[in-house]
Design goal:
The complex is a heterodimer of chains A (1124) and B (148). Chain A is α+β, with helices and mostly antiparallel strands and 1124 residues long. Chain A contains 35 helices and 42 strands. Chain B has a single domain (9-145), classed as CheA-289, Domain 4 (OB fold (Dihydrolipoamide Acetyltransferase, E2P), Beta Barrel). In chain B, strand 4 and strand 5 (57-63) form a beta hairpin. The two termini of chain B are 24 Å apart. The chains are: A alpha+beta (1124), B mainly beta (148).
């Protein structure tokens, strides 16, 4: 049956590949251990190799068998400490393991692949080792070992136990008899020695025709077949007919048949083959005496002595060539008959390795062998497509089963309630089904999850091999191997990751001498780390090599004509580094065999794009680079933001989603500008290019007209145009935005009731990122975020690049999934082009920001109808809409069920003396993270985010939970101190470790800040933690204070922008002074720009923190103090 | 397969694309539906009317008339959507009207002329004559594989 045969092979392959996966890293570990071997590890590898070999023997995969055999020999040497694992002998092992993988991958053709070089290499290793050993042993104790080494010349003296040697015979012979039997089997040493050399076992088997064969309803032929598949018959007392004459029921005419049979099966397994009692099998060992299977010596002294010359018809001395007895076994493409005669040049020395065989777990099941004999005849597959299978834990399967059961029950319930018109019952059943479906989905996803270790594990080898050939020293650290990802992603991510790791070794890490000159350790470090964050998997590849030089990259890009010089001038260093992702960019100065083939990072990026992943580079020249990859957990079901454009719904994968932006109609004009022919929006001081989705995909943008209640065509030609009923037919080619105050239109606008404040006139922008590029997609309307199932699009739509697939929505309609990176290309928004324009404007913008000192991004919200609050935006995690009825009162606290846990809720009026929370049904929960926990602040809309540069008053309205006030849009706005509110409601969260308290009371911190509000605020929070604070209004004062209190101050916290002396200068002074250079300096900013950070690092700033993120500041302070 | 196999009888589902009577092997047809609510696909080829959800499968719906270069009235009451399975993918073909199921003997099917009602002959497997009508037997896979 060919299927079963496939199954056997399949099982063998799976098992072997699994063994092989471990082998590589284990071999590397063995190499690392050096002379001090870890015996368990060596045994493990040895066993793995042996299992592969054993199976290969059954399957007739001679090449695999031969190769593993050689590997086994070397491993045996290492185990017996006769060989010290060094790269010289480990290399051939690794290469052989690679070859083995290749053979297993193409198993059906494996016998035709040339493995000679590998076998020879392995043998050379062995021979060299033996030679040296021999020399040693000849000098010291020449006697013992030589015996085995020279078994090719059998010695008569050894054959002491052989029953009846024929004296004077040309070859030494051996006569074998079974205890209690008369028949003698005569063999020559020549017949058996080769098998010993191949470290096979030789058994002397007695089969009683009646008892063991006929009464068991077996045929003699089946026994012969089994023997032939597992080994070869050296000699027998019966005369076997030619295979052509032999019919299925042929039985020899003797009562008892004896066989001398050689096989790789161990004594522990041999009885399964013959299915006879154990005393019917004896083992013939190298000392040419017989042993019982339990290892007892067969005492032959009381056995009847037989004739030295046996009767002719009883004993045939011929080795029986199998193929003449039986039909040749037609295992595909196996040219060798399955008798498994070793044909390689087995060197006699090999026996040494084999003398101490491990008790290996030969996982060969005997019953499977006859299947391999079944003809899978004829069809010559080019390649054995081995179907992939997954291992799933039984408990998980059980869980699935239970869920399936529940689903069926709920369905019954639903059907019943539906048929009886029981609305309540249907509702309950519906809810249950909802619950079960999510659980089922989760459980099924789990079955597809595999640990990233599967990919990571191959890197030690990659790094080792590369660093050796390149003469580098690299230390690879793996972290987070247990992080799990969907199978498809695991499979697809291997190549890009390998590329990145290779790049790090090739381009990142310098040669040892270069490193030493640069004051680094000669060993480079590559740090590979995987971890979960925000429902995604992050992978980081960090090296401490030479880093990427943005200017070199830019020059190269200019040379290759990828960008122009002008473009390069206005690029930030980060953008320059990201040039590496441009197609056709390779930085290798010389082409090595590892990289520099012109295809490089752009391929990595494309691959990751296809997976919905994002890649990002951080690099500092001379210090190293970090590549960050973000990947979705799974591809099949993804969370998406649903948007509406042109009356159709579209889904944008959450991976690409950065934030949602709604620009109220009255701000559209001020916040959206046209640069060249592109729209840009000002977002927290940066310019973001905008794309109108309706333009890109060529549909009509619609908006919902509140007055008439239906959808109308949006006639805006440019985003900044206002809608006006009275001028609907404004000529389309007229670009109103460039000339905003065109007289004809402005007159209309003034007369018409201004509709700018209608919510329908607001702009909805989905800020998406594609790794290197961030842009805003202008859509008609924003809807919910949903988990969707990705379905492929048909072939007619493959050319529509803007879509990544389709999905079926809750109402049964289909929605398209947008591919944001292709949309950008379709809109002609290529990162570089956009950079030029944006950078020009951004420069002015930056200056403007600098001028407006101390800007802070704030979130505006309300708690009572007429009281406006604000909180630092960077502390906000998320905002959720809830119903008042969702709030539960548990244990005296208000909580809400949230993402599988309970989210504690607070309102400002609990702590501060403000108006009580409004009595509305629809509330907002602003989720903050405090002391590592998420807390929700109850609030109500409208919420808004804005950058404020307005003076903050830190005294007039200050009270518990309120840090100060400011005026925004003519409203007095109270700034909420989240930290304080939580601290008052939950003081137990803030209990500190005693040793930290110790540090704090003994520490004085110098704090420089010019804004009174921030100075008081930050000083207060540092003091609350128990530190002593010395405050300074600017750098000059700070420097003076430092001189004065030189021996007290242990840390400096400074603002950057200050009059008289700024934070950079102060830091430089501190770091250059021998007295103070050791002091850690933490810089506080409101918004840290890339360039500022780089500048600060140069000045010697140790860390950057955001002004109102109290928790992180404290953490940073404590970390520095602990380190000191 | 097997136009040469004699006396093989094939059941043809026949339908009108505009004024042209066409047929296809009924075994190709998965189901015939009235027009359903479809999702438009901006930027798709002009012959693609939209995509719809057929019990969890995404089906691309094609205006067969436009695909063949015929005038096809797809907005009348008689308009139907024939769901066919071509190359392991469900595709909906919009036709003007459904007609009878006709039994055709393959040996009476004639080779298609170079042009049938303005449609290239290569799109047809053959032409079958009944008493009063001429049915062009569409090679559905061919029609759907061509990018026209």
């Amino acid at each position: 049956m060919p299927i079963q045969e496939d199954e056997t092979l399949q099982m063998y392959l799976e098992e072997s590949l699994e063994h092989l996966n471990d082998i590589e890293n284990d071999i590397l570990a063995i190499e690392n251990d050096g002379a001090d071997i870890n015996e368990d590890l060596v045994n493990k590898v040895y066993r793995a190799a042996h299992s592969i070999k054993g199976g290969a023997g059954f399957m007739g995969l001679t090449n695999i068998k031969d190769l593993t055999h050689e590997m086994e020999n070397i491993l045996g040497k290492i185990r017996s400490r006769e060989m010290i694992p060094v790269s010289g002998n480990i290399n051939p092992l690794l290469k052989a393991a690679d070859k083995l993988k290749e053979l297993l991958d193409d198993v059906l053709n494996s016998n035709e692949i040339d493995i000679d070089s590998h076998v020879q290499e392995l043998q050379t290793v062995l021979k060299n080792e033996i030679k040296t050993k021999q020399q040693v042993s000849e000098e010291s104790a020449p006697a013992d070992k030589q015996e085995y080494i020279e078994t090719s010349e059998p010695r008569q003296s050894q054959v002491a136990t052989g029953k009846a040697d024929v004296p004077g015979a040309q070859h030494d012979t051996l006569a074998l008899t079974f205890p209690g039997e008369n028949e003698v089997l005569n063999i020559t040493f020549d017949q058996i020695t080769p098998y010993f050399k191949q470290s096979k076992h030789i058994y002397f088997v007695k089969i009683r025709i009646n008892e063991d064969v006929l009464s068991q309803e077996k045929t003699f032929q089946s026994i012969l077949e089994e023997m032939e598949q597992t080994g070869s018959i050296i000699s027998t007392n019966i005369s076997l007919p030619d295979s052509s004459d032999m019919d299925a029921h042929w039985t020899p005419d003797t009562r008892t048949a004896f066989f001398l049979f050689c096989t790789i099966l161990k004594p522990t397994d041999i009885s399964i083959l013959f299915e006879v009692t154990e005393d019917q099998i004896l083992e013939l060992r190298k000392d040419h005496s017989l042993y019982f299977l339990n290892g007892d010596f067969v005492d032959t002294s009381n056995l009847p002595v037989s004739e030295p010359a046996p009767s002719a018809q009883q004993i045939t001395q011929n080795q029986i060539p199998l193929e003449t007895n039986l039909e040749p076994v037609e295992f595909e493409e196996i040219t060798q008959p399955p008798e498994m005669t070793f044909q390689e040049e087995t060197s006699p020395q090999m026996n040494i390795a084999m003398t101490n065989q491990v008790d290996q777990q030969t996982s060969l099941s005997i019953s499977s062998q006859d299947k391999s004999a079944d003809k899978s005849a004829g069809k010559k597959q080019a390649k054995f497509e081995h179907e992939t299978s997954l291992r799933v834990h039984v408990s998980l399967l059980d869980q699935l089963m239970t869920l399936a059961g529940e689903l069926v029950l709920s369905r019954n319930q639903l059907l019943q309630s539906m048929s009886s018109n029981d609305l309540r019952g249907s509702e309950i059943a519906g809810q249950r089904i909802d619950l079960i479906t999510s659980e089922l989905q989760e459980a099924i996803m789990l079955t597809r999850m595999q640990s990233i270790g599967n990919v990571f594990n191959k890197f030690p080898r990659v790094v080792r091999d590369m660093s050796q050939t390149m003469g580098k020293k690299v230390d690879l650290v793996l972290e987070g191997k247990e992080v799990e990802l969907d199978k498809t992603i695991i499979e697809a991510i291997g190549d890009p990751l390998t590329h990145l790791v290779r790049n790090s070794v090739d381009h990142g890490i310098e040669l040892p001498q270069v490193r030493q000159k640069a004051g680094k350790t000669p060993e480079g470090q590559i740090f590979l780390k995987a971890y979960h964050e925000a429902g995604q998997v992050n992978i980081e590849i960090t090296d401490d090599g030479k880093g990427l030089d943005g200017n070199v990259l830019a020059n190269k890009a200019i040379d290759k004509g990828l960008i122009t010089e002008d473009q390069a001038k206005v690029m930030s260093s980060r953008e320059k580094i990201n040039l590496i992702f441009l197609p056709g960019f390779s930085t290798a100065e010389k082409i090595t065999d590892v990289s520099g083939r012109g295809v490089g990072m752009d391929v990595v990026k494309t691959n990751l794009d296809q997976l919905g992943g994002i890649i990002d580079i951080d690099s500092e020249l001379g210090k190293g680079s970090t590549f960050r990859i973000k990947l979705p957990l799974t591809l099949a079901i993804i969370p998406c933001q649903i948007i509406l454009t042109g009356g159709e719904r579209y889904a944008i994968p959450q991976v690409n989603l950065e934030e949602l932006l709604r620009i109220p109609a009255d701000q559209v004009r001020t916040r959206i500008e046209r640069v060249g022919d592109a729209d840009v929006v000002r977002l927290r001081g940066n310019l973001l290019p905008l794309i109108r989705l309706s333009d890109v995909i060529g549909v009509e943008s619609l908006y919902f007209d509140i007055e008439s209640g239906d959808c109308k065509k949006n006639r805006r030609n440019a985003l900044t145009d206002r809608r006006s009923k009275k001028s609907p037919m404004a000529p389309p080619e007229e670009d109103l935005s460039t000339v905003p105050d065109e007289p004809i239109n402005s007159e209309d606008r003034n007369t018409v009731q201004d509709r700018r404040y209608h919510s329908a006139s607001a702009l909805n922008i989905v800020v998406v990122s594609t790794g290197t590029m961030k842009y805003g997609l202008v859509v008609d309307d924003l809807q919910d975020s949903e988990e969707i199932v990705v379905k492929p699009l048909g072939r007619d739509l493959k050319k529509c690049k803007g879509y990544a697939g389709a999905t079926i929505m809750g109402d049964g309609r289909v929605a398209l999934i947008l591919d944001v990176s292709n949309l950008a290309h379709m809109a002609g928004l290529i990162s570089m082009e956009n950079t030029v324009r944006a950078a020009e404007v951004a420069q002015d913008e930056k200056l403007a920001v600098r001028a407006k000192h101390d800007r802070q991004a704030m979130l505006l919200f309300r708690s009572a109808e007429d009281e406006q609050f604000s909180a630092p935006l960077n502390l906000v995690e998320r905002i959720e809409k809830i119903k008042r009825s969702d709030i539960e009162n548990v244990g005296g606290k208000r909580v809400i069920k949230y993402r599988g846990g309970s989210l504690p809720l607070f309102s400002i009026d609990e702590v501060a003396d403000v108006k009580p929370l409004t009595d509305s049904d629809n509330l907002l929960v602003i989720v903050f993270k405090v002391t590592g926990r998420e807390v929700g602040l109850l609030a109500m809309g409208p919420v808004d985010a804005l950058d404020t540069g307005i003076e903050i008053d830190g005294s007039t309205l200050k009270q518990t939970g309120i840090m100060g006030s400011t005026i925004i849009d003519n409203n007095t706005t109270l700034m909420v101190d989240i930290h304080e509110i939580v601290k008052i409601s939950n003081p137990q969260w803030f209990e500190e470790k005693p040793e930290e308290k110790q540090i704090k009371t003994e520490t004085t911190i110098l704090f420089a800040e010019d804004s009174t509000f921030f100075r008081n605020q930050v000083k207060g929070s540092i003091e609350q933690e128990g530190f002593t604070v010395l405050e300074a209004e600017d750098g000059v004062v700070a420097w003076d204070l430092l001189q004065e209190h030189a021996d007290q101050i242990s840390l400096v916290v400074t603002d950057i922008e200050m009059p008289n002396m700024d934070g950079f200068t102060l830091t430089t002074k501190i770091k250059q002074s021998p007295l103070f250079a050791h002091l850690p300096v933490i810089a506080l900013t409101t918004l840290a720009g890339e360039e500022d950070i780089a500048k600060g690092k140069n000045a010697g700033i140790d860390d950057y923190q955001i002004k109102l993120d109290r928790e992180k500041l404290m953490k940073s302070i404590i970390n520095f103090l602990k380190a000191a | 397969m097997g136009m040469q196999t004699s006396t093989r009888i094939v059941e043809l589902a026949t339908f009108y694309v505009g004024q042209a009577l066409c047929g296809m092997d009924i075994l190709k047809v998965q189901e015939i539906n009235k027009l359903m609510d479809m999702t438009k696909v901006p930027q798709a080829p002009s012959y693609v009317i939209g995509i719809l959800n057929l019990r969890g499968q995404i089906v691309t719906v094609i205006d067969l008339g436009k695909k063949l270069g015929l005038n096809n009235d797809i907005l009348s009451d008689t308009t139907r959507n024939i769901i066919v399975n071509s190359d392991n993918e469900y595709i909906g073909l919009i036709v003007s009207r459904i007609s009878d199921v006709v039994e055709a003997e393959w040996d009476k099917v004639e080779k298609p002329p170079a042009n049938i009602c303005g449609v290239q002959g290569v799109y047809f497997k053959g032409v079958f004559k009944t008493k009063d009508r001429l049915i062009g037997i569409l090679d559905v896979d061919r029609v759907l594989s061509e990018d026209s």
